[in-house]
Specification:
Layout (H helix, E strand, L loop, with lengths): L1 H8 L3 H8 L3 H5 L8 H13 L5 H11 L5 H10 L10 H8 L13 E9 L5 E9 L7 E5 L4 H15 L17
Antiparallel strand pairs: 1-2, 2-3
Helix pairs in contact: 1-2, 5-6
Length: 182
């Protein structure tokens, strides 16, 4: 904006900065920071090979390699590159990473998704609803509300639904085998 004012109105930088209420030292500022492209590249390489390392561990490796960088600079570059880690990964997410990818449904009654929905009544009593949805047709073969759900209840509900709705053609489990999760 300062350059535009100087060019359009043929005024000095001092006057343009005064008109915009802009500090002249900020206008004339040039960074004295050395180029950090090599350091950024090395931090990215370390983080690609060692995914679970945080900035402190990356800083130790940089020190061992002789980069001689400050830990605050390492942290700033690490954060700017978007490499921040969560402090603690919840266990359910760690377990989810170990699972196989979801199967694609190619027909009705092929793949089901199951989850619980929680709510609370006006009386304060908690309510849980077992929701099972066919991922292909979006048909919900069961919505089973209860005040308390145990593992045995889930198995019984799923066996009842499988008897009513039926198993898929290529499903490895048959009636009498119990619930089989593939």
């Amino acid at each position: 904006m300062v350059k535009g004012l100087c060019r359009d109105w043929t005024i000095s930088i001092r006057r343009a900065c005064g008109a915009l209420n802009f500090d002249r030292s900020t206008y004339h500022y040039t960074s004295r920071r050395a180029d950090q492209a090599g350091l950024e590249r090395r931090i990215r390489e370390i983080c690609e090979t060692r995914v679970r390392y945080g900035y402190r561990r990356v800083h130790v490796l940089l020190e061992r390699e002789g980069w001689g960088t400050n830990i605050k600079r390492t942290y700033r570059i690490y954060r700017d590159l978007g490499l921040q880690l969560r402090n603690k990964t919840p266990k359910r997410r760690v377990k989810a990473k170990l699972r196989e990818d979801r199967q694609m449904a190619v027909g009705s009654n092929d793949v089901w998704a199951m989850d619980f929905v929680h709510d609370q009544l006006a009386t304060g009593k908690k309510l849980r609803v077992l929701t099972v949805v066919d991922t292909f047709s979006r048909y919900a073969p069961v919505l089973d509300p209860r005040h308390s759900y145990r593992g045995d209840d889930v198995v019984q509900t799923l066996e009842r639904v499988c008897r009513n709705v039926g198993y898929s053609e290529d499903h490895p489990c048959r009636p009498g085998d119990g619930i089989c999760v593939t």
